[in-house]
Amino acid sequence: MRIDIAISGDHVSPDLVRGKTVIVIDTLRATTVIITSLVNGAKSVVPVTTVEEGLGIMKRMENVVLGGERKSMKIDGFDFSNSPREYTREVISGKNLILTTTNGTKAISKSKDGTRILIGALVNAKAVARKACGYTEDIIIVNAGTDGRFSMDDFITGGALIEEILAMRNADLTDISKTALMTYRNHKDIRSYVKEAAHFRILEDLGLQDDIDFCLQKDIFAIVPEFDHGVIKLPEGQISLL
């Protein structure tokens, strides 16, 4: 098994992911929102890249809520923003969430040609690593990045996933994967590293410190959502709560 990393969704092509197990990461905050929503009983999450696409799908689905952000802020007319703390069991259970974000949902869409697409973050790092280890294909970790650029928060999350994978099985690492692993091993206090990230500062300046705190928790959930044919769900047999 070989593990590679794509530094942003903009760096993903069909050839890069084809035949591989893909783990998409947008720690701050889209994949954390997706995981949290499904933990709290959402029926599905439909990631879309534009507001217009989301509004169109809404007309064809039942029990729909709209969530997402542009420039880290809630979209006008949407039910929720991109804050995982908003997606409580009371508001999301039994609902289909249509989600559009600047980086995360684009990275998921760009990864659609992978053999399978797993949704990962710090909150489910050990679980998603264990799931990926159960397959024979090479792994590519797709970091959502920030506006097409490298993002420190996704990079160190990738390192955390690689650490968990190597605890379960042997794997060959590309240079960028080795660098992510070393970054994580040298910054087990993840906040000390992530606080230097541009994306961290943007969220902090917007008063979203509680979101950051939530997203930087490691291994609080044991589910692994999967993206297939345009929809993210829990595979049959997975329960939504620990």
Task: Outline the secondary-structure elements.
Layout: E1 2-6, H1 14-17, E2 21-25, H2 30-39, E3 44-48, H3 51-58, E4 64-70, E5 73-74, H4 89-92, E6 96-100, H5 104-110, E7 116-120, H6 125-133, E8 139-143, H7 152-166, E9 172-173, H8 175-185, H9 190-194, H10 198-205, H11 209-215, E10 226-228, E11 231-233
Helix pairs in contact: 6-7, 7-8
Short description:
By secondary structure, the chain is an alpha/beta fold. It is built from 11 helices and 11 strands.
List key phrases describing it.
single chain; 242 residues; alpha/beta; putative 2-phosphosulfolactate phosphatase; 7-stranded mixed β-sheet; 4-stranded mixed β-sheet; hydrolase; 2-phosphosulfolactate phosphatase activity
**Broad structural category:** alpha/beta
Main β-sheet description: 7 strands, mixed
Give the DSSP E fraction (strand runs of 2 or more residues). 15-25%
What is Rg? 16 Å
- Top-tier CATH class: Alpha Beta
Count every helix, treating DSSP H or I runs of 4 or more residues as helices.
11
Strand tally is 11
CATH topology type: putative 2-phosphosulfolactate phosphatase
Helix content: 25-40%
Give the overall shape, derived from the CA principal axes.
globular
Calculate the terminal CA-CA distance, rounded to whole Å. Answer: 29 Å
Whole-number mean pLDDT: 96
N to C succession of SSEs: EHEHEHEEHEHEHEHEHHHHEE
Structurally, how many domains make up the residues? 1
CATH H-level name... which superfamily? Answer: ComB-like
Going across the biggest sheet, name each strand in turn: 9-1-8-2-7-10-11
Which residue ranges are poorly predicted, with pLDDT under 50 across at least 5 consecutive positions?
A: none
CATH architecture: Alpha-Beta Complex
